[in-house]
Amino acid sequence: MSKLVCNKCVLDSDIPGIEINEENGLCHFCETYVPLSSQEKEQYLNRIEELFKECSGRGNYDVIFALSGGKDSSYTLYKLKKDYPFLRVLAVQFDNGFISDYAVVNAKKMCEIAGCDYFKLTMEEEILHELFRKAAESCDAFPNFAKYRASDICNICIGVIKQKLMEEAIVQKAPFIVFAFTGGQSPNPIIKLSANFIQWSRNLFEKQLQKIGVEDRDEQFLVKNEVIKNIGEVAPSILHPLCLWDYSEDKVLETVSNLGWKAPALNDSNSTNCTLNSFACYNHLEKYGFHPYAFDIAGLVRSGEMSREEGLYKLSQEPSQSLIEDVAEKLEIKLNCSINSQK
């Protein structure tokens, strides 16, 4: 049977587990999708404001913010501080060894504009290269729901970020961790954590690291067990305010550009901060046969945050060969001949 593409989003029948209803032309996700209403979003925003007012001032910081230096995180940091200027924010940028110079400049500029502290989380380059090499060489290390939402390399990188931000929040006694996830990426705006959940999350990620052949005995990538033991009475909560705000990529780009944010010349339609992304997409396509951004983009289209045409266009773009080759050389991974023959 020829490939069918959902009439509403961008998912197609060639992706494992995706079936398109031939009668209405919709995938299962679109058939069952119920968006948050304007009233529900307003209720969530009111609850977040209440939480900010109730819990601010208890620790060294109120918010540990995941700042990549890309457009979405830069916009979210700016609007967060604009809407809630009383928040004391520590913005953490994880230097995975492949963030662009522009991303660092943009991150520092946005922190200066927002009036918050900046911290760059760094690790030894050799250790990170081995981590991403093993992720690239692994297969089926993550369950389908994770594999469908991101490449193995991105899942590992995001896992490290989440672990270390939880650790930082506990150490700083910050009641909130904020990520710049859109409605298509995270439909749950408020996630209350507990010591048991953080321990479970740590153990799960440790098993995933072991599955790709990484033993993190020094807890470089994991929340340190000793930190979890000292969590205190209240664990931090994770917030996703961007999924509650009106979102369009054009609006976000216009806002941050007017503030002085500069788009890097990465030639990557899906990342404005990471030079590893094109290789991660290539690696995922080689292993699994579908684009790692398909589900995220489908979520954006489904929620009305991106047009279907734009979503299909993003998925049709070939990853940058120059970025792929540069990363492959650094990770000491041999590319297949199909890439090399396209030079």
Automatic annotation (TrEMBL):
Domain of life of the source: Archaea
GO biological process assignments: tRNA wobble position uridine thiolation
Gene3D superfamilies, per the entry: HUPs
Database matches in InterPro entries: Rossmann-like_a/b/a_fold
PANTHER family xrefs: MITOCHONDRIAL TRNA-SPECIFIC 2-THIOURIDYLASE 1, TRNA 5-METHYLAMINOMETHYL-2-THIOURIDYLATE -METHYLTRANSFERASE
Name the record gives this protein: Uncharacterized protein
